[in-house]
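Note to self: the last two entries modelled the partners one at a time, which told us nothing about the interface. This time every component goes in together.
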Amino acid sequence: MTQKNRLMSGGRINRSKPLSFTYNDKQYSGYEGDTLASALLANGVDIIGRSFKYSRPRGIVAAGAEEPNAVMQIGATEATQTPNVRATQQELYPGLVCGATNGWPNVDNDLMGLVGKIGGKAMPPGFYYKTFMYPKSMWETYESYIRKAAGLGRSPNEYDVDIYDKMNQHCDVLVVGAGPAGLSAALVAAKAGARVILADEQNEFGGSLLSSRETLDGKPATEWVNSVVEELSTFENVALMPRSTVNGYHDHNFLTIHERCTDHIADRAPNGQVRQRYHRVRAKWVVLATGAHERPLVYGNNDVPGCMQASAVSTYINRYGVVPGNELVLMTTNDNAYHTALDWHDAGRKVMAIVDTRKNPSGALIEEARNRGINVMVGSGVIEVQGSKRVTSVSVAPLNEDGSRVTGSVIKIGADTVASSGGWSPVVHLSCHTGSRPVWKDEALGFVPGSTVQNQFTAGAINGEYSTEGALGQGVESANDVLKALGLDAVSIALPDTDEPAQSESMALYHVPHTKPTSQAPKQFVDYQNDVTAAGIELACREGFESIEHVKRYTAMGFGTDQGKLGNINGMAIAAKMLNQSIPETGTTIFRPNYTPVTFGAIVGRDCGELFDPMRYTAMHAWHEERGAEYEDVGQWKRPWYFPLKGESMQDALNRECLATRESVGILDASTLGKIDIQGKDAREFLGRVYTNAWAKLAVGKCRYGLMCGEDGMVFDDGVTSCLGENHFLMTTTSGGAAHVLEWLELYHQTEWPEMEVYFTSVTDHWATMTIAGPNSRKLLEELTDYDVSSENFGYMDWKKMTIAGVPARVFRISFTGELSYEINVQANYGLHVWKALFEHEDKYNLTPYGTETMHILRAEKGFIIAGQDTDGSVHPFDLGMPWAVSMKKPFSFIGKRGMQREDCVRPDRKQLVGLKTTDPNIVLPEGAQGVFDPNAPIPMPMVGHVTSSYWSANLNRSVAMGFVKGGSERMGEKVYYPLVDGRTVEAEICSPVFLDPKGERQHV
Amino acid sequence: MLHIYCPHCCEYREEEEFHAKGQAHIVRPLDPDACTDQEWGEFMYFRKNPRGIHHELWVHAAGCRKFFNVTRNTQTYEIKEVYKVGEKPTIVAE
Amino acid sequence: MQHYSGFGLLKHSLSHHENWQRIWRNPTPKKKYDVIIVGGGGHGLATAYYLAKQFGVTNVAVIEKGYLGGGNTARNTTIVRSNYLWDEAAHLYEHSMKLWEGLSQDLNYNVMFSQRGCLNLGHTLQDMRDIERRVNANRLNGIDGEVLDAQQVKEIVPILDCSSDRRYPVMGASWQPRAGVARHDAVAWGFARGADAHGVDLIQQTEVVDFIIEDGTVVGVKTDRYGEIKADRVGCVVAGNSSVLAAKAGFELPLESHPLQALVSEPIKPILDTVVMSNHVHGYASQSDKGDLVIGAGIDGYTGYGQRGSYGTIEHTLQAIVEMFPIFSRVRMNRQWGGIVDTCPDACPIVSETPVKNLFFNCGWGTGGFKATPGSGNVFAASLAKGEMHELAKPFSMFRYHNGALVDEHGAAGVAH
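The predicted structure of the combined assembly is written out below.
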């Protein structure tokens, strides 16, 4: 197909590099330097989508980030499908495959369009709130149709094949936007030696200068752009970032930049390259030179393909060598848009009329138009266009002075393109992200940035300064403001001369009246993407939605992927008029990040998959791997859960591990337990304050178990702490709680008791810990040490320094299984060596490795709790049946003491931890089962507590369980019932939680 | 994203290195056992939570592990002052 | 009140929608009301609606400093569920759920409550224990719930990566089929319309700057726009501003106000039918009728009233989402925003009398306020009507922080506080 709208010459495209691409399964061609939008227009493609509510055909309206309609599905493969890419921002690359996101059977002939035509009248804003309510049961059916109709593109169904990067950046000044203001600002800051980042969303720098025919110093403006970019690229203190959108402006001058590294090359990044990179920038200062978007005017049927923004038409002609039609009608409220008619005329196509809404426009541009014989119709407006899939004609009518009503008869003019301009809206989005409210500037007919607490300056059109000369000057000024703030000397640069003609006053007009009332006129679109019309906004106001936020939410104005860049101000103006207010009184809605949408993957970077969260392994991990361990995630740790032998079920493995441990000896990798080294002359006193029990008399060489509570008296961690020296202790914590406990200790030390001399150091990773447990554990230990480990020399709850397998070790004779047990601690890098040395005696003692699950079973047989499983932050030591672990007589009121004595904490009917013996010994209660006293009570049943721990005990040949029961400690021998999800009700007897060896004889051998 | 000056490291560091720990200057009663339930509850839970100038406790968790105080505007998020535990703020709400 | 229906829409389309009634009046306040509700968000409007409709107290004003439903009602991720752990919370949220189930018809306003179900994923053994515990409690409390294994989860959400090689593999989930989502703005508007129709005065753009307190009893409020307005009882429902108003009444609350951020993707074709939440990887998602993926996570660690939080939280949230749904990597984030949530130490609300007589506070809903809207309004209305707390509200007295009778719902709160 030929590019029927492509000019023979001109534009910044590379005519020697033709590219072919596919749109809706059809091949087209364009050139390097095209955007997808310019290529589609060059090929005369009018319809690129269907509207969301009425399924009306839509064409390209704009040429940049503000485009509401041309939102495409891109991707040649399933894995590279990308939804909702704006064609005006997508550079063309060879082989690009894209399609419209809506329309069935296709976008040109969409059956839903019929629904829109027929039903559209009954679908004013908020219609769904007023219907689909009856019958109640039908809502979800209605809803499924609504859902199907909504949505733009589709998510890929396969995993992303590309990679993304993140980068942290610091700079003295981040200049956002590389138009005339941004370029001059960057150059000044660069010359002063400041560290500069200049970022622009487009593929090349220049901003508005890329699209206009104005000159600087008598030469095409792009020559000046090239010279500045060339100069900037010589500075080492300057980073130039094209294709990089500054998307978010966060507190304390933190900004994010979305750099698209390869999206202009292919839909999949070339091998080894990153598709997109997200920059996290901490900028000392920011200069916003983000420019302005042209506002199209609101008139009847203004969404018919062929209706465009005036500046976009100029951009397509001047930058891409594409004239998007044959016969143009331009409607404008200002002089500037006359450029578009001149561009069109000079491109050799016909300007049917310039419709100027002002009564008496005058000035050089108007003269120039008249001199070329263009029909300039003043004091008039295009009140509607005709045509379904493309504009065929326009209706022009005279307007009164303020443009509020039609004053005369309507004439029709044949045309296929309508360009309109209602002035400019400064791009204030970034300046609003941190909560600054924009303020209305009458002379600029737009909102400009308001006051801010950020280190921010602004330059150019964002301030309502729409001339190139003004933008250049403000760029220099803002950069010098930054230099001053940085304590650097001011810099002056020679600015080029501009050739801008003087412009006369613009007219404040947003909504062109029709001969009919708005409610009866053809649809006048304000927000194209969400099908929000002027009539809709008026209806919202009539219905009482008087806050602009209500209008926005009721009509969905500005909720699209373009976030209302084109439509918001027009919508506010229409609402303001309805409410008899000025636009600033009506106010604006708040802009939020992102300025334009950002790929999830780019924000995630590499921090997913295995890098989602660091994995912590113990020193013996390789051995566990070899033995085929199954793992449990505990905090960030990967802990062996159990060690199945070939063909063994989990329960088989657990039974074997449990029996072997109690019969001979088992071994557990306990390295993950938190370990905190505590030193200082007040260390002992400190322990007494943070633990519930007494520490004053713990002798050197001894170990003691302790409970740690919050000020509320509720247990949050537990562990054994050993006295290494008079002023030296080693505290252990739960595996998941180590960091929290350390911060807790530091908090109390630094804020409450800074006078105490005590130091805390995390030593978790310094030590490898292996627990050997079982009647043969002493014999096993003796195989590896010459130290006298007899009961006489090395008693229960003692610790000793010794040499094991040739390396120095601390051995703690403590037990979490109720067996004779030793916890061997060696320097972590010796861990695997010692572990392997122990396993040299594997066969002799049937040394059996076990994981966390067997550890849980063995401790449950003994009634030992696990903090976090048998506690949930709402139980105190007395609830746990552990009064022996609390010393109420300590002189210092330890943390938790007062809390556990509050009124509600001393109720006798609190839930208390007890043992639970199922009447049928073969039933293992599910953990989490809820108990009741009366199994026949109706729902809601009064619940009395849940099962916290429950296992099959191979050693006892029955189930064992622990759980909370209301007043349980006084109900020994009574029955409690557990109605289960599967319909069974399990009966259990309340008993002591110590199921095995209640006298503790096994660990005292 | 806050940029916080650690008065112990004497450097600006990223928010990710810090943990916010709530209202500053809450003193644990010297004699908890003499407190009523109400007094103890107020110590544990009841907070000023102002809109505007707020004195709060932070810890340089992934840095020097030191706690310190920050005076911050909870509306604009401006940090007005940082000071060490035990010191008094010079900027306070009117 | 004008009745809304599909037929009415057709009828009005013939007159070009020019004759729709105002959805609510814009009245000048009277000198005195029986009840003043401070705060015109969802909870406040629901309170006014039920006060007037169910309890016959119609001399009521709702005073809102901005626009109706403009606080957290306008900013939440619209999830509705009632699968809370403790009886007290479960009963309150289930009361709310039952009201949700007939709300569109009751209000004659389609709040688009859609019971598409909610999965709370478990990724560790302890997660699964907690899920078992909660689901068992729910069922015995008469609340629907199931415990699913990874395979069953996969059947409900095929696009969720349930493979065992993820960093934190999905081990299972709790599933509440009756849970779902609703159209948040519509909830506020529907309640406002209903309240207005029953004679409640909705006073917008008016800030309560102080209370009039005589001998420890509140007798009215001072406003910036209309001066003093008297009332027999005053109920404050001002999420994100509760501590500030409490300070004006002379007391502190056990609250901290934190930013809670959320984000949406661009609209995409339907791909996610249910609500999927994960405490462990820390993110949740659903898809709106418009096609946006609606995504949230936890609160920011610091307190803040700025309706925005830190970018790092957004980063972590999206990491979690892409970890759960790797196919979304190329989908794009459209917009992020923040609300201000008042969090309580036990992740449960305060619906309570206060140290000032006839002054009542309803606050501290943390991240769980939206789902409670009808229930909260209903029990608060009952309490304001009678001058004493409703049975379901009693456990949520602010004085529980004195005696220690906390209701710790951190596990069920959906996101860590």
